Structure formats: C-alpha cells, structure tokens
C-alpha cells in the first residue's frame, strides 16, 4: 500500500507538470509544461547504483597495511551500522515527511516553489527536494567525479535536472525500501573535510563509528549536509553549533526527541575529537621508509596495461578505489634496507643513497629504501632514486661504474671466451684509434685512454683476477674483442637499460659503466646470476582484489633463461672472489655464499655495490641526486673520506642490509661451475713477448705471449637490443635533473668506471 501511495504521489506531480500547476516555475526556466512532460516520458525509469569511490589499501606481502589511498574517503555502512539517532536527525532536518510521502513531497515542493516565487528571486532559495531526490542528485555528482564542469551541471538549478530527479526517484522507490534509500543517501552524501558518507564523517569529526554517535554529534553532522563549507565544525565552530541547534529544535518539533532533550543537547559544546584522514603514500614513510615503494606501486597500477587498456581507464579505476593491493614488500627486508640506508648516509649529508632488493627467480621487489625521506621539505624528496624516470625516478639514472663489468664477462663467456682469457697491460691503455663493433656501425672515441685505479696495477690478468681487482684496461680490451653488440644484447635481456627508458649507448666506455641506470635494474640483472641465468622482470604487485572479492590480473615477472647455467655459475664463483679477496671485502658476508661487485664513477660522483646470495639480490648506490657531488674529502654519516670507493661506503651498507634481511633465512650455496671453468690465476708479473706492458696481447701470431686458446669471433645477432617502453606516469613534481648529456670527464681510473663517449 505504501509503495502504491508513493507511486500515486509521484504521478500527481507528473500530472501537475503537464496540467500547468507548476507552470510559473517551468516557464521561468524556459521550458513549457508540454516539453517537461515529453522529457519526463522519454527518460529511463531505472537509475543504476554507481560504484561509490572508496579508499584502496596497499598491503605488504603478509597482508599488513602500508597505506590507504583514495580520491574520496568513504566507508560504506549498512542500515544497522548507523546510529538510529543519526538517521532520525537527517530525516528531521532534510525531509521530515520522508516516511509519509512518495518519491517527491508534493506539498513541500509546491510550498517551496511558492515561497521562492514570492521572494522575487531575492534571498536564499528554499529547497523542496525529498531525500530520494537528493540521493539521485548525489549520484549525478558522484558520476561527475572531479570534473568541475560536470559537477556544476549535476548541481544546476534547471527544470530538466529536476525532471530527471523525479523520474529516477519514482523508479528507485518502486525498487527499494525507504530504509534502503536512506542508507544509500547517508553513504553517498558529502560532510566536508574529505569525508564522504556518515562513517567517514563520524571518524573525521568525532573519531568514532557512525553506530556510536550521540544526539548532539548526530545533529552536528546532519546540520553540515546543507552547506559543508559554511557549517564546517572545524573551520566555523560557532556556525556549526548554531546549525546543530536548529537541527535539534526541528527534531523536537517532529517529536523524535523531547524538548527537554533538545535543550540539554543545545547546552553542550561541539566536543569535537577530530582526526586526520590519512591519505597517500606519504603515510607509508612511517613504516621504515616504505613510501617510495608505495609510490612505485601506485605508478604500476596507473601505468601497466594489466590494469586498463589506456590511461583514462587506469586513472578511473584508481579514483574509484575499493582495491586491496597485495604487494611483494617484505617487512623484515624493508626494515633492514631502511636501517642500513639511513645509518650509512644521513638525511642531511651532501649525498644520498638508495637500497633496493629483488628476489632471484621471482622478480619480487622485497625492499626499497633511501636516506632522504619522502616529502617536499629540505633534504626530502619525492624522487625514487631506485627506479626509472617514468616510474618516479631521476631523469636519467646513475652511471654504474665497474658494476657493469660482470655483464661484459658474462657476454664473453656466452660467446665462447674462457675465464683464462688473458691480457697484459700497463696502468693505462691508448684506445683512441681502436674501433669497437656495435649492432650497427663500428664506433670509436678519439679521447679514450682508460686507466686503472693505481699505477701499480700492471701486468697480466685473466677474467678472475681482473674482476677481483676491477682492472679497467682488461675489460676495455675484453669488450673490444667480444664486441659491444653482444654485451648490449645480453644486458637488454637482463633488463638493463638507461634510467630514461632508452637502450644502452653502445660506446667504448660502456663496459666501465658509462651508461646511466637505475639501481633496481642492476639488482634485477645480478639476480639473473643468482638464479643461474634466469631473468625475471621486477614486480611489486602479487594480487589486486576489489571489495566484492573479484580479482584482477596483475603484471607477471615473465621469467626466462637468458644465459647458460654454466655461465651464471661461473660468474657467481668469480664474483665470490670480489668479496673474499678483492675490492669488495668490506661487504662480504661470513655465514653464507655471497658475491658482488664494486663500482665507482669518474670524479667519484657515484659509488655502488651490487651483490647477491642465491636468494636475494641487492643494489646500493650513493651519490649526488643531481650527479653533481664529487665524493672527495667528504663527510658521510660522520666519517670523513679522502676518496669514496664502491667497496668503502656502499659495501658496508649492503652488508648491513643483507645481514638483516637474511637473518634466520636459509643459506643455500651457489651451484659449482663446470669442471675446469676456473683456471689457476696467472702470474701478475708476466709480460708480453715484445716487452711493452702498455699494449694488449693480440694473440694473432704464434708466440704472442698469451696462454688463452683461440676463440671464434662473435657474429652479430639478427635482433639487436630493444628500447624498453617508457610507460606513462612520471614524477608528480618536476624531477631533480641529472648531469646533462654532452658533459666531458677525465679518463677512467681503477674501480672507477665511466668515461667520455660520443653522444651522451
């Protein structure tokens, strides 16, 4: 009977429009009653319930919350989860005859029309919309999102909109009960201060659930709805209290409370107990600096096609929220990385650092930390030094120095060379006239005269001793014989590209780390060695579920074998020597198999240690965020260094981070390399037959002085390295710039890699 009465009430208004009862109102808006009737009949009767924007939750690998992010803060509640006094308060002030009339209060509407017409357009307009109509209007506003033009249209005082409200209101009251509509209204309406819905408002202003609201609190919230800015309890407490008292009096008038109860409530203060509504990744910085990882996850969702065919679709999904995003972050590893990063380099030091951990064989990013916290203040940053530019990182990445040498060594092994490949060199080597084969035309550098770190580093080296002591001259000769194309091709297969998303520059100094690369890509590349030649694309998300339990597809690591197991096993053994008896001894772990490589760039503007165990790969970078700090006579974390080396500052940071992350974790061993793969070390004092230690052993004519067997020269592959996609997104504020292309550097020295090359 109630539904029938509601329908009759709505039909009366529709008939009134056609008959001209509301003609002064319609005519004043330039719409005839006939037109109004035709528009009314043309509208669909049903209005779909929109997906109400809600927070998304970013969780660690164990399901613990890292951050809550939202476009609109809203927590949906059922009818029984909202205090009865709150329901009564909103009905009393917004539509006191709500349970008596149909989808429209014809009496209230006509009264409002007459009073507004009698006012001659002056003063405030009196509304006549029922709660059902208000709910419909809120749906229009919700669908408009954050587009100001669409929001204005959704709220425009036009008869066409009123007609829409009416038709949809009729349909709603035919399908839903009054209680259901009231619940939806209380979940959708705006209460100011980023609080959408009564539960959010209860938490924002009173730090409690909507089910626990008292009479004065409920009246306060009910009063806010009419004008959230004007009646803001925080900004305008006097206006909010006056409005609350109006609500209380109205509740007494309609007899949902007594006058005595109203008077007692009026005598109280607002008694706000406000709390901020935490929003965004910046809140995750409190969890061992996890804000940068959180920011990376947000960019994954906004950039990866797995979450939408185009940017608009992905942005819409992010705005709507309601997602539970389970990530790969390991709390113990994150704590270890953050502790090591912030103790090894202090926030206000002239340089910063980054520590990023990747799991071999899965690509899971286990931790991401840096010395400067997430923020916009002094010695804070929103740049994620660990990742590519399009994912929130620096403009180019950072030169890697000698940490690139193991990739050159692996490419040599993959192309038929052996660990016993020897070169006899002096302290420096003149490569100005030498041409290096690329995937296209050969290239040379007319200024290229690389040096070793120390003048004492002369003699005969094989791949093992050259890696342990980081001999630049050896690796320059090795890269020339192998060719730059197979090195770049293997690097590409290992996920190594420049921080701006472009493929590596194939230049003579490539093997010494002249390209600018993000730390995470180096960690993932070294994880390839740890997993016996299997490369996995780094991933940060393992599951995305909607609130209804629906699961979305997520990006996959796409693990694939990119080098022979024997190659990876051999490199692992060679790099064990670096931490046991080479430049990385300060980084070596004593209780488990581990391997790694130091790296320092020209002018010491960046220093690295990248290392791994069979179950975790970690890259550590330190340097100026703009690549503009020469780490010479510099104080870092309270210690003054004459010169910074990769094994000296990044190495101990790596050791601390790995020790903490792997505490209590199994310690598997690396697989042994093939028998005979690691030959005896050569005599470092051995000289070539011509007695010229500054020349390389060409091994062409018999008696050339080399003990290495002949090898088959490399043949260019059909498919050259690809340029990684740059993706969408990018930094949300202008990025701190790196050293501009085209700069010049002095020749490379020792563990110090990098160097000049054309076109950079």
Automatic annotation (TrEMBL):
- This chain's source organism reads Embleya scabrispora
Q: Which reaction does it catalyse?
A: Preferential cleavage: (Ac)2-L-Lys-D-Ala-|-D-Ala. Also transpeptidation of peptidyl-alanyl moieties that are N-acyl substituents of D-alanine; [GlcNAc-(1->4)-Mur2Ac(oyl-L-Ala-gamma-D-Glu-L-Lys-D-Ala-D-Ala)](n)-di-trans,octa-cis-undecaprenyl diphosphate + beta-D-GlcNAc-(1->4)-Mur2Ac(oyl-L-Ala-gamma-D-Glu-L-Lys-D-Ala-D-Ala)-di-trans,octa-cis-undecaprenyl diphosphate = [GlcNAc-(1->4)-Mur2Ac(oyl-L-Ala-gamma-D-Glu-L-Lys-D-Ala-D-Ala)](n+1)-di-trans,octa-cis-undecaprenyl diphosphate + di-trans,octa-cis-undecaprenyl diphosphate + H(+)
**Glycosyl transferase family domain sequence ranges:** 64-251
Q: Give start-end positions of Basic and acidic residues composition bias.
A: 683-699
Q: Which family does it belong to?
A: In the C-terminal section; belongs to the transpeptidase family.
Q: Where is the Penicillin-binding protein transpeptidase domain?
A: 354-625
* GO terms for cellular component: outer membrane-bounded periplasmic space
Compositionally biased intervals (Gly residues) = 751-760
> Which is a GO BP term held by this UniProt record?
peptidoglycan biosynthetic process
One GO MF term attached to the UniProt entry: penicillin binding
Could you tell me where the Pro residues compositional bias lies? 671-682, 710-724
What's this protein's name? Answer: Penicillin-binding protein
Q: Where is this region: Disordered?
A: 441-460, 665-760
Ranges of biased composition (kind: Polar residues): 449-460
* The entry's keywords: Carboxypeptidase, Cell shape, Cell wall biogenesis/degradation, Glycosyltransferase, Hydrolase, Multifunctional enzyme, Peptidoglycan synthesis, Protease, Transferase
